[in-house]
Amino acid sequence: MDFGVNFFPVVDPEQRSATECYDMIGELSELAEELGYEHVQTVEHYFSPYGGYCPDPVTLLTALAARTSRVRIVTGAVIPAFTHPVKLAGKLAMLDHISHGRLDVGFGRGFLPTEFTAFDVPMEESRARFAEGVEACRQLWSQEDLVWEGRFHSFGPVTLLPRPYQRPHPPIFIASATSPESCAAAGRAGHNLQVVPSVTSTEQLQGMLAAYREAWAEAGHAPGAYRIQVKYTCYVAERHAEALELGERWERNYVQHMAGAVAPLAAGAGADYPGYEKFAEKVAAYDFTTSLKANKVLAGDTAAVADQIAAIRDALGSDIDLSLQFSPGAMEREQAVTAMRLFARDVMPKFKQAA
């Protein structure tokens, strides 16, 4: 099992400036490399405190690539619906070279109505635009003199420059929130998978992963050659009670900001996003203790967090990796540094040795 560090800036500008946020992410990325974490990754969101400090993950990850030399650089995820595939494939190919082949590319469908409105993209087209964008990037990376005739874009013949550092292209991950069908499609295509347990039940997530593994095998891909990345927020402190206090505070911050970002879905501003229209109700009923017991968030001293991860591995499979957010909201830098160090010292070795 590998462990990486996830940066999802759910931050109010009144609490922390963008400059301070980026500086802290840079410092924590250097620390992640020092401590032996496998990757650093970030998101693509716009406008609101819910991730809006990262409208272009490629820009931020390029800076992180320049400050590190070993840790992998991961988009988690870029949204093809908002960028022409020639532009997106070219930017990512550049980052693959700048990082000397350390790039993993996660693609996401997007789900925030305000973002689709700003880009003048109907949400009803999100699934189709996502699928076309991923495949267009893959072919741009791996083919020469490409002629593309899609539903949303047509171009060619073109040969992308630069060609990716990794051949035929960087590893592709598909981000899926709730859909077994999306997971199965990723498995059939031979792509890797990114999932977020906070918006699903354990049973639903188990079904998604089963669909992915089954589709992978049925498509004839090499057994076990896939990578499944599961994302959690992680609060670790020397004192168990302190970690729980931090978790209670910053998980509530996350849930409240996400509720505001997805609120238009409750009014029908979108299509084919099952469950999101009820998110306001879930926020009103949110309980940190319940979430903790369900292993939707990791929190506690190192022994407690290790027990949680063991339970997650038993429930979801021994073939998963974890991407961990140690610096949620406007958490103090030293609290995040302490959590990363404690986790690397006391938790990570237990699962590395088991592997």
Automatic annotation (TrEMBL):
The GO terms this record gives for MF are: oxidoreductase activity
The record, for InterPro entries, names: Bact_Lucif_Oxidored, Luciferase-like_dom, Luciferase-like_sf
Q: What class of enzyme is it?
A: oxidoreductase
User: What UniProt keywords are attached to this protein's entry?
Assistant: Monooxygenase, Oxidoreductase
**SUPFAM superfamilies attached to this UniProt entry:** Bacterial luciferase-like
Q: What EC number(s) does the entry state?
A: 1.-.-.-
Tell me if tRNA processing is a UniProt keyword of this record.
no
Source taxon at top rank? Bacteria
Domain Luciferase-like stretches: 1-316
The record, for PANTHER family, names:
BLR5498 PROTEIN, LUCIFERASE-LIKE MONOOXYGENASE
This protein's name? LLM class flavin-dependent oxidoreductase
Q: Can you name the source organism?
A: Streptomyces ovatisporus
